[in-house]
Design a protein that fits this description.
single chain, 316 residues, alpha+beta, L-amino peptidase D-ALA esterase/amidase, five-stranded mixed beta sheet, 6 helices, 21 strands, Peptidase, ArgJ-like_dom_sf, Peptidase_S58_DmpA, aminopeptidase activity
């Protein structure tokens, strides 16, 4: 198990998973008084919850958690578990004797691997939220448990992927972290090197999805979506959080190809605690680079599971 640590003040990350059914949940908890948040959806097949309220003109200015889940639309049930956990801690907007937490979420499609009837539920959401801290696993844990990539030539040629994390901290205290659950139709690449993608019949040789697309390959395998969350201690408005998410999508384009296809629902959230004054361009660029590095981390830390090999199985 590969463990990562977040040093972004005030935020906690927790995971829960079904490693037999191959699905899971990752939860990002904001400081108790909440965080400004925004998102940008670039893929054409998203599955989301409570994202309309992140529009700048909507009343709610802060949220309390973001949930990333496997299980396709079924996985949105886990968000209710996170809501219940936070409400029991008294976190949320006060309504009489109770509190109503604002929890936003997105899902990826992992029903092609493991048990197609296994998906995150309310109890898994509670478990992930209660496990949240500064240390958390990456690879085939949390929302990355059932993630896979390289599906242009069919799922039978895909490689196992997972979740990854990267962060950048400047001398002035600005911290930007990015967590990505990478479940792409395309391949993961680092400059000229392909880390994970569509495999040949030998299940060891990676076929370039980039080259296939340039040759006019017409098949587009469904059942994808890469989802992620950027956390920062920058002082940002809802509008600026959305701008950061927009800029950060370039990190996906610099590490996944093709990306944002008609069968991907690529979605990036940004949560900001508001502690450090800085420029939006600085945060956006750091987020872009952190997202790129988190995608590479997802490939490097994944394990072969569900009959599909991973990067570490092929690159010795």
């Amino acid at each position: 198990m590969d463990i990562r640590t977040t040093h972004v003040p005030g935020f906690k990350i927790g995971t829960a998973e079904d490693r037999e059914g191959l699905t899971g949940v990752t939860v990002f908890l904001a400081p108790e008084d909440g965080a400004a948040a925004g998102l940008d959806v670039r893929g054409c097949a998203p599955g989301t919850r409570e994202t309309d309220l992140l529009s700048p003109e909507k009343t709610v200015q802060k949220i309390h958690a973001v949930v990333l889940s496997g299980g396709s639309a079924f996985g949105l049930e886990a968000d209710s578990g996170v809501m219940r956990y936070l409400a029991e801690q008294g976190i949320g907007f006060p309504v009489g004797d109770s509190a109503v937490p604002i929890v936003c979420g997105a899902v990826l499609f992992d029903l092609s691997i493991g048990d197609p009837h296994a998906f995150p539920d309310l109890e898994m959401g509670i478990k992930a939220a209660s496990a949240a801290g500064t240390d958390f696993p990456v690879g085939c844990y949390g929302a990355g448990t059932g993630a896979s990539v390289g599906k242009l030539t069919g799922f039978e040629h895909a490689m196992k992927s997972g979740a990854g994390y990267a962060e950048i901290i400047l001398a002035d205290g600005l911290a930007v972290g990015a967590y990505m659950a990478v479940n792409a139709c395309g391949e993961i690449y680092d400059q000229d090197k392909i880390l994970a993608g569509a495999l040949a019949d030998d299940d060891r040789t990676i076929i370039s999805s980039h080259r296939l697309m340039l040759e006019g390959y017409e098949r587009n395998m469904g059942g994808n979506t890469s989802i992620g969350c950027i956390i920062t201690n920058a002082d940002l408005t809802k509008t600026e959080c959305r701008m950061v998410s927009t800029m950060a999508h370039d990190g996906l384009a610099r590490s996944i190809r093709p990306v944002h296809t008609s069968m991907d629902g690529d979605t990036l959230f940004t949560m900001a605690s508001g502690e450090v004054k800085t420029t939006i361009d600085t945060v956006g660029y750091l987020a872009e680079e952190a997202v790129r590095l988190a995608v590479l981390d997802a490939a490097a830390s994944a394990e072969g599971m569900g009959g599909r090999p991973a990067y570490r199985d092929i690159i010795k």
